[in-house]
């Protein structure tokens, strides 16, 4: 599954030069410019010529980039679509099969098996569906496209470096439409920085080696700030009288302070009462509720979609033994078209919602909460038809 960078893009480190990179124009001339830049960066001219010789523009990549409607689904619908009994069973089987690898990851990086199993499941169904887009064509096409060239142009040169190391083949390396490669879908720059030879064969082979893919994913999460041995998400129940203005990712208290306000774990004990945490209400105060610990924020470095991140984090807890979440009885939400209208109205009132795309992301949620406060409504950041009508 892929829908990046709105949803499934891995974290990118953008150079200052990339932000002003040229795009558009004749595709052949654009590729020639990339080749010339590669040589100026110190790459061998003959290698650069071979690398770029067969690159082609792929219109299907642009179509995929523009079509990401799945992220307009609400959390419960999205989670039920992605989390199947088969994915649970396969995850448990993979945990046993690669127990030694997961033990190394937990020892070296402090990351529980469920976290990487969830990514592995959602990204490629445990390696079964890694994408059939030619990776180089995808990266160059997205670099040429003027929507987000600064995200993808650095990846082209990273792929060239992988090619020079013998770990990338321009004609045959395939992956997701946004250029991610392998079982946990990593971009070339991230492979260079965080790739780990988990099976000891001298190469980082994320497409064919589960130990390589999992160890690399664990190393990347650590580099993104994962705190060893700490929880990331816990389902909770919330009292009807909670101050909803305190909920959302932009508000934190310790788990113990939340508990003093009536927020209780749905099962077991509060995982870490001493840690700062945010109460997340993905479908408002009458829907499911979660306590997000600091490690939860690392998920947004891997992926930018609120609904994907919450679902991946929740699935990780399920793979670690947590029960099925309580969907509650949330108030009706908005369709994608209605969400776009709402976003337009929020922008007109001076709020930053990011892209007007019909997707209820974190910026839209924060804007909704502010407007609910202005209108004297319960400020649970869940937009309803009633809120839209009032605006």
Automatic annotation (TrEMBL):
<keyword id="KW-0732">Signal</keyword>
<dbReference type="Pfam" id="PF13406">
    <property type="entry name" value="SLT_2"/>
</dbReference>
<dbReference type="GO" id="GO:0009253">
    <property type="term" value="P:peptidoglycan catabolic process"/>
</dbReference>
<dbReference type="InterPro" id="IPR002477">
    <property type="entry name" value="Peptidoglycan-bd-like"/>
</dbReference>
<feature type="signal peptide">
    <location>
        <begin position="1"/>
        <end position="21"/>
    </location>
</feature>
<dbReference type="InterPro" id="IPR031304">
    <property type="entry name" value="SLT_2"/>
</dbReference>
<dbReference type="InterPro" id="IPR023346">
    <property type="entry name" value="Lysozyme-like_dom_sf"/>
</dbReference>
<feature type="domain" description="Transglycosylase SLT">
    <location>
        <begin position="27"/>
        <end position="316"/>
    </location>
</feature>
<dbReference type="InterPro" id="IPR036365">
    <property type="entry name" value="PGBD-like_sf"/>
</dbReference>
<protein>
    <submittedName>
        <fullName>Lytic transglycosylase</fullName>
    </submittedName>
</protein>
<dbReference type="GO" id="GO:0008933">
    <property type="term" value="F:peptidoglycan lytic transglycosylase activity"/>
</dbReference>
<dbReference type="InterPro" id="IPR043426">
    <property type="entry name" value="MltB-like"/>
</dbReference>
<feature type="domain" description="Peptidoglycan binding-like">
    <location>
        <begin position="335"/>
        <end position="391"/>
    </location>
</feature>
<dbReference type="Pfam" id="PF01471">
    <property type="entry name" value="PG_binding_1"/>
</dbReference>
<dbReference type="InterPro" id="IPR036366">
    <property type="entry name" value="PGBDSf"/>
</dbReference>
<dbReference type="InterPro" id="IPR011970">
    <property type="entry name" value="MltB_2"/>
</dbReference>
